[in-house]
Amino acid sequence: MNNIKEKYLKKIQHAAESIIYLDEVNNLVIKKRIKKRYRLPEIDDSLRKFRTKSEASLIRKASRIGIDVPKIFCVGDDEIKMEYLGKKKIRDVITKKNYIKICKKIGFVISQLHKNNIIHGDLTTSNMILKEDRIYLIDFGLGFHSSRIEDKATDLHLLFKALESTHFSLSHDAWNVIINSYKENYGDADRVLSRLKKIKERGRYKKNPDRKGF
User: Fold this and answer.
1) Check: CATH 3.30.200.20 for 6-83?
2) Which residue in 23, 78, 122, 139 is the catalytic one?
3) Which of 10, 20, 72, 173 has the lowest CB atom count within 10 Å?
C-alpha cells in the first residue's frame, strides 16, 4: 500500500487472516494478509505470499468461467487490490419476497464453481454481493481447487449451516431453492448431495453419540 496515502484508506473488516481496506479515492478494496508473530518470519512471508497468489488465481479462474467476482487490479506479495462492489451483501438484502430469485442464482453460481472444480471454502451470504441484479462472490481466501465429491459437499454444508444460523426463518425454503438450482445445472449434483447427506448425519451422530446407526 506504499503508493496509496493511508489517510484515504478506511478499514472495513478485520478478520483472522487479513484486513480489508477501502480506498475511497480510487474506489477499490485492498485485502492485506496479516503477519503472524508465532510463525518464523521466512515461513510467514512464504505462506502469506502463497495464499495471496492462490486466492487471486481462484478469483481469476472464476471470472474466466463466467462467475461474477471483483476485478483484480494488482497482486502483491501479501495484498490484492480489487474492485469495490458496494455494501449490498446478500446477508442484508435477502427477504421473504426476493429469496426465490436470489437463491436460484446462488445455486447456479455454486454449480458452476463445482463444475470447474473450484471450492470456495467459505460460502456464506456475507461473501455474496448483490450488484445490478447480479450475485458476486467475494473472499476466496479459504478456497482451493479440488475434484473431490467430499470437498464439494463440504462447501455446500458450510452454506447450509450459514443459512441456519443467519437466516433461520428463511433457511428451509431458501435451501430447497438453492439445491434445486444446483441440481439443474450440475451433472454430478446427485453424488455431491448424497455425500452431503452423510456429512449431515455425521454431524448429528457427534451431537448424539448414543444414536443407533446412521
Assistant:
1) yes
2) 122
3) 10
